[in-house]
Amino acid sequence: MKLSRARAADVLVTTLAVLAAGCSDGRAADQTSPGSLGPTERQVKLEKIRTLDCQGAFVCRQEKLLFITGAGNGYCLDLSGDPASPVVLSDSLPHAWDIAVKGDHAFVADNSRTISVYDISDRKTWRRIGEWPLPAAGENVIVRDDLAYVADCQAGLQILNIRDPSKPVRVGENRLPKQDIDAIGLSGNVAYLYDHADGTLRLVDVTDPANTKHLSLFEFGRPFIQGEMDLCRGYAYCVAGEFGVVVVDVRDSKSPKLAAVIDTPGYASDVIVSEDLAFVADGEAGVRVVDVRDPAKPIEVGRFTSSDLNAQQVAVLGNLLYVANKPPGGAMILRFQLPR
Question: Given pLDDT bands bounded at 50, 70 and 90, which one contains residue 40?
Answer without folding.
Answer: low
